[in-house]
Design goal:
The protein has one domain. A 3-stranded mixed β-sheet has the order 1-2-5, with no helix packed on it. A two-stranded antiparallel sheet has the order 3-4. A hairpin with a 6-residue loop joins strand 1 and strand 2. It is of the alpha+beta class. The chain contains 6 helices and 5 strands.
Length: 155
């Protein structure tokens, strides 16, 4: 009899197919926020400002397959760079699985509903502004988003 566990409980991140890997994204949009790094301390702080390719209502990239062409500093998450991305949200499925945790109960793979992440209050839907609306990128500091960092990972 085949193992009945879901793929994310049977496979490591590196063993997943591209489709499986991509399905781990819950659509929260937290990784699409502009982050500022304090040069003195190295602390990385997210803002309410989103990438110019981010659709703030759909909580998705508008040109995901070509994003690096338009946003060269967009970070492509892989099983091999998760350790270096300590700014990833604690609720992120990639981070959670990498840390040996389970998916939260509101994750779309658990609920079967892509809206569950938004109903759980874990997404940035409707809470951000486009970086295109800023005259100077440094203005993003005025849009700090500490409440978005609340660890809602087990909710």
């Amino acid at each position: 009899m085949a193992d009945q566990k879901p793929f994310w409980e049977r496979k490591s991140l590196a063993e997943m197919t591209r489709v499986e890997w991509e399905s781990l994204c819950d659509g929260c949009g937290l990784c699409c926020l502009v982050r500022l790094e304090d040069e003195a301390t190295g602390e990385v702080m997210p803002t309410r400002v989103h990438c110019r390719l981010f659709d703030s209502q759909a909580c998705r990239c508008t040109d995901y397959d070509h994003r690096k062409h338009y946003v060269p500093d967009c970070i492509k998450l892989t099983p091999h760079n998760i350790d270096a991305l300590d700014w990833m949200p604690k609720s992120c499925a990639y981070r959670r699985l990498h840390e040996g945790k389970t998916l939260p109960r509101w994750h779309p793979l658990i609920t079967g509903d892509p809206e569950s992440v938004h109903r759980a209050g874990v997404s940035v839907r409707g809470q951000t502004i486009s970086e295109m609306a800023l005259e100077d990128p440094e203005d993003a500091v005025e849009f700090e988003a500490p409440e978005l960092l609340i660890d809602r990972s087990d909710d």
